[in-house]
Amino acid sequence: MKKINVLLTGASGTVGFEALKQLLEKGCYNVTVFDKKSKLSVKKLAPFENQIDLIYGDISNASHLEKITNMDAVIHLAAIIPPLADDLPELAHNVNTIGTQNLIKQLERHSPNAFFMYSSSISVYGDRIKNPYIKVGDPLIPSEGDAYAETKIAAEKALQNSNLDWTIFRLAAIMGNHKMSKLMFHQPLNTALEIATPRDTARAFVNAIPKQTELFKQIFNLGGGESCRIIYEHFLERSFAIFGLGKLDFPKNAFADKNFHCGYYDDGDVLEKILNFRDDSLEDYFKMEADKVSSLTKIAASVFKKLVKWYLLKQSEPLEALKTNDKERIQHYFN
């Protein structure tokens, strides 16, 4: 049987790396990887170089995509994500929107029958604190200043207006290999949070390849389902306990009240019924995280937890806005 030619972008990323492993495990795909060259990507992809066609380049530069031809399916995961997307919105636009447009044009010319699977985001729905149950048909109202969400909406439109066959998955909060950063304080503590693990998310994209007919020119919400739901405050409490950091004892005004995203996918089971990709629950996620933390790391974190929390709190932009009486930013973060 002739192997299917699959293009995977962003293979060195959290979900992309899982997708790469799963594609190769299937044994029925010729896999071409397009990725940005960096120390991390070279290190992660080196073990697979004899199993894949590897193209390094900048997706925002159309000329770097010229080697991409004769693809049957495309899993497009390459993106600049927050917090980097917040800090460098122009870069996010160039990679997430312009890059996607460049890829679409290359495929229209040299792989016109390719099935394009696009990774979008729950951020396109904006702040859902008051109405946390989300459906695909809900209006796309990104939170104020959310450059990342804007790039995803623009990329979605470019794909919908293309001549390709496509499907769009709007990903819930993908939790795995996450680092604590200033972003943790942007999210209100009462946020309804539905997660999905990287391996379940990757499985959805890989399982989607032979399901083109069922997914054809449709948008789906991709999340872990009811077993992957929790309130953000409780998520942080459990995470802190796993890492040996004790109680979540930051001042409440360290966290924003509004202008973030996330929620529960009310129609998430639609995609699960087609692709059967969910294996992990929230408990599985916490176990995976706990397994990564050595006893020595946990002891060290426990000893230095006050210093770690002080360092984290210094990154709280909502708290900084209050301290400096920055009225514009106070209005952005608080009700």
Please give a structural write-up.
- With 335 residues, this protein is of the alpha/beta class.
- 41% of the residues lie in helices and 16% in strands.
- It is globular, with a radius of gyration of 20 Å.
- The N and C termini lie far apart (60 Å).
Biggest β-sheet description: 7 strands, parallel
Q: Which sequence of SSEs, written as H and E, runs from N to C?
A: EHEHEEHHEEHEEEHHEEHEHHHHHH
Count of helix runs: 14
Mean pLDDT: 96
Q: What gap, in angstroms, lies between the N and C termini? A: 60 Å
Task: Please indicate the count of domains.
Answer: 2
Alpha-carbon Rg, integer? 20 Å
CATH domain class name of the largest domain: Alpha Beta
Which percent range fits the helix content?
40-55%
What is the level-2 CATH architecture name of the largest domain? 3-Layer(aba) Sandwich
Strand order of the largest sheet: 3-2-1-4-5-7-10
Low-confidence runs (pLDDT<50, min 5 residues)? none
Q: Tell how many strands the DSSP assignment holds.
A: 12
Q: What structural category characterises the helix and strand content?
A: alpha/beta
The portion of residues forming beta strands comes to 15-25%
Shape: globular
What is the CATH homology-level superfamily of the largest domain? Answer: NAD(P)-binding Rossmann-like Domain
CATH fold description of the largest domain = Rossmann fold
